[in-house]
Amino acid sequence: MDKKEVLNTLSQIENKFADALKKHKGTLPAVSKDGVYDNRLDLSVNWTIDNGPAWWTNGFWGGIFNQLYALTGKKEYLDEARESRKLIDTCFLSEYYTGLHHDVGFMWLPTAVADYIMTGDEEAKRRGLLAAQLLAGRYNPQGEFIRAWNDIVPGDKSNKGWVIIDSMLNISILYWATKVTNDPRFAHIAEPHATTVMNAFIREDGSVRHIVEFDADKGGFVCDYGGQGMKQGSSWTRGQSWGIYGFTNSYTHTGRKDFLDAAVKIADHVISVIPESYLIPVDFDQDKNLSFEDSTAAAVIACGLIELDKYVPGKGYKETAEKLIEVLTNQRADFSLERDGILQRCTGSFNGLNDREVNFVYADYYYLEALMKLAGKDVMFW
Ligand code: GLY
């Protein structure tokens, strides 16, 4: 993609979300099915404790408007990002507190931390620090990991030792907290967690597992699960994307070469299995005749490869990212104003019956972030 195409696509994204702002201000969209957004604040829907206001993607709507503020300087975008953050802030002091989870980084990095980095706003800083403290509180010092999710059935602790690869993006809020407080405790949780994940999740061929269970009392690997991928042992594409981007970020924050090597290993696995079409399946191991896609993974892989290319130039990472974004733009982006959401064919999990080939707000967020990186304009908070 040349600079002109990048800027032209960014202007189409802005156009789409300027229109969406008129229609959906004050709501928290997460998924668009058949071109219509849901609203995680609509309490007439029977949300569970963690898929309504505390839903893990609820920071990405605000994140889109923070990136658009970085792009254009238009105050109405910053205002929407802040209003949106205030909607999720209510989770800190309501019944939804018990629904909060390991994904608080995904919620308050694109909102509070992005805002603080751009404007120095003290309220945004306090919210980011609250989220960092919640995440730090999930650390299991015995096993040196941050626990994923809460009890699946209240009181049932069978997943007390579960960790997921997605956590690698969330821990950026801990590195950030150390930077702004000058207190190393947060990084002293992020770094051993990343080490545990590096040692237990990355397979010989460079693919990464989605879920690993550790012994929550003594530490140590117990087993792994296929999670949102096709099956145990397979290569769930979004999991690979979290791995590339997450380990690259841990390298940025710590300078540890083994984290960079981990990102390279996962990236090289991904590049070796990307289909010729550059359309990303839900799982790299799925049947080649099955046209089941996850455009979200394509956008996150692109973001990770652009960052990785800064440290490891000359291996074609940025070129692969550009190709992924070009294919998404030409074949999977819907810029029409009649339908909500841009990227089509995003999928939550391989075996889940909900959210198959829909549009996700977080897919559009990462698509925008990748284009902002290509334009050299992104606000980087991971
Ligand atoms: N963080 C969960 C996912 O990638 O779907």
Tags for this model:
382 residues, mainly alpha, Glycosyltransferase, 3-stranded antiparallel β-sheet, 13 helices, binds glycine
Total tally of structural domains:
1
Strand order of the largest sheet: 2-1-8
Provide the succession of SSEs.
HEEHHHHEEEHHHEEHHHHEH
Structural class of the helices, strands and pairings? Answer: mainly alpha
Assembly state of the chains shown: single chain
Q: Could you please say which CATH topology applies here?
A: Glycosyltransferase
Give the radius of gyration: 19 Å
Q: What's the helix count?
A: 13
Outline type: globular
Largest pleated sheet: 3 strands, antiparallel
CATH class identity: Mainly Alpha
Strand percentage, roughly? 5-15%
Beta strand count: 8
Overall mean pLDDT: 97
What small molecules does this complex bind? glycine
Task: For the record, give the distance between the C-alpha atoms at the N and C termini, rounded to a whole number.
Answer: 24 Å
Tell me what the CATH architecture is.
Alpha/alpha barrel
Which residues sit in consecutive blocks of at least 5 with pLDDT less than 50? none
Helix amount: 40-55%
Structure notes:
It is globular and about 55 Å long. It has one domain (3-375): Glycosyltransferase. The protein has 13 helices and 8 strands. Helix 2 runs parallel beside helix 13 (361-374) and helix 11 (295-311) packs antiparallel against helix 12 (317-332). The strands form 3 sheets. A 3-stranded antiparallel β-sheet has the order 2-1-8. Strands 5-6-7 form a 3-stranded antiparallel β-sheet, with helices on one face. It has a two-stranded antiparallel sheet with strand order 3-4. With 382 residues, the chain is mostly helical. The structure holds glycine. Glycine (GLY) is lined by residues 56, 166, 228, 238, 348.
